[in-house]
Amino acid sequence: MNYSLTPSNLRPGPLPEHLQHRILLVGDPGARPDGLERFLVRGGFQVTEAAYPPSGPERAESQPPDLVVFSVAAKQAGLADSVRDLAAAARFAGAPVVVLLADGGADAVAEALEAGARDAMASPVHFGELRARIDADLRLRHELHEAREALRTRDLLFDIFQEVSSALRADEIFQTLVRRVGHAFGLTHCSFVLTAPGEDKGRVVAVYENPSIRDLRVELERYPEIQEAIRTERPVLINDVHEHPLFESIRRRWAQQQIEVNVQSAVALPVFVQGRAAGVFFLRTVQGDPELRAHDVAFANTIAQAAARVLENEERRAAIYRRQINAGITDVLTGCASLDALDRRLRDEFERARRYSLRFALVVIDVDKLREVNERLGQPAGDRVLAEIGAMMQREIRAPDFVARYGGDEFALVLPETDAQGGRQFVERLRQVLARHTFPDLGRGEVPSLSAGVVGYPHSEVLRPEDLFTQVEAALERGKKSEPTRIGVA
Predict the structure, then answer these.
(1) What is the structure's pLDDT at 427?
(2) Distance CA 145, CA 160 (A)
(3) Which SS3 state, helix, strand or coil, does residue 146 take?
(4) Within a domain: residue 98?
């Protein structure tokens, strides 16, 4: 079983000749040409029969036919009504209707065609001609379906790229992609995983079914389709993970650990940034999900690669920004951004959140008792402690977060897609990291503590970016004076 699809063979095209089309025979068996069913089966069609009119309430078939053959006597009353009912029946999902008339001649053929039949033939029916007509009808149906899919794809792509183009940062692009693709295909799982050749871990930066996940580390040995896509630098499609050899070792682990896995199929599409694999667009279906067709995979591959070009532009902008930072927009002592850079970033974040109804948190952290370190060990020792804390904050923040030196012993952080509670949790996590850190200049028990103020946007009293500083400074002061945790929240 071939599990690797190149972009060229992902493009939709004519249906394979060996595909068994489903033909449904309805109507009066006595009016049916002798040997019709045997002829169709020998011709490679999957043939079933159904009573007409159908009994019970009408409902869509789980596998509607590709074509309906209606055998009827023209002298039967209501020929036109019967044909109209069949052509409009929801249970047949718009399958073309071919009417075979046991009598009635050209007038009956005209009546059937006017009532909505795709084709009609009067007795005697020549099977060779019937086969040619059926093939032509199926071909036309397939072409119409492809044309509708192409229009749907074009409109959906345009809509997605319009939304992507308004995103300001890479994490927004990832989240937009997984949300739109997951929704369009009715997927149970759709995510974007950042990784590279040779790495044994990946970083999940966007998940359709759980948008709150923005930075989750995963072991890639649990996802052989991702490893294969990165290794081969080709899209990988697994139709059935319970049979495919790529999943053989992981299936043994599932059995040993008695893990019940309901995943049915998986798709991993590598995304390239400046010629190197930088991540994987990852789709999975479970039993009961709509089946992923080659056309769907091609569509997902198209937007993933287009997003890669957006990300390349983002990387170029980031490189320019880094050069600007190195040119003097960084605080020299701590390596964090300067106060001027913080002001610009906060204004950008405020405008983005206001325009797109998003949220973010501003956190100001005060390093307690740093003055005592300066007085006891000297200014150079205090500077080294402050520099290590700045480096620690830069390691702990996520990719979209921003940290700047706010004052002598204060830092400010902008945390996109985070509310006030998330800002408080960040401070508590930073305290835990700080408590485990060893400072060369400080002895055991001398590690500085942290106080913090947090404000989340949107906030009823924040109408301008400047209001955020007012609120967060008041929260910091309140945290120092009256909060047991020394964390004040506006």
Answers:
(1) 92
(2) 22
(3) helix
(4) yes
Domain range for residue 351?
330-489
Averaged pLDDT, 215-243: 88
Choice among 6-10, 210-214, 381-385 with the minimum mean pLDDT: 6-10
- pLDDT for 25-61, tens place per residue? 988 888 888 889 899 998 889 888 887 776 555 555 5
Q: Which of 132-146, 153-167, 378-392 has the lowest mean pLDDT?
A: 153-167
Residue type, 429: R
Establish if 30 belongs to a structural domain: yes
- Whose CA is closest to 363, among 418, 409, 433? 418
Whether residues 58 and 27 fall in one domain: yes
Do 114 and 181 belong to one domain? no
**What domain count does the chain have?**
3
Are 354 and 477 contained in the same domain? Answer: yes
468 CB-near residues (< 8 Å, 6+ apart) = 346, 350, 362, 455, 457, 459, 462
Domain-located, residue 263: yes
Half-sphere exposure of 223 (CA within 13 A, CB side): 30
Cβ partners under 8 Å of residue 32, min gap 6? 25, 71, 100
> What pTM value is reported for the model?
0.45
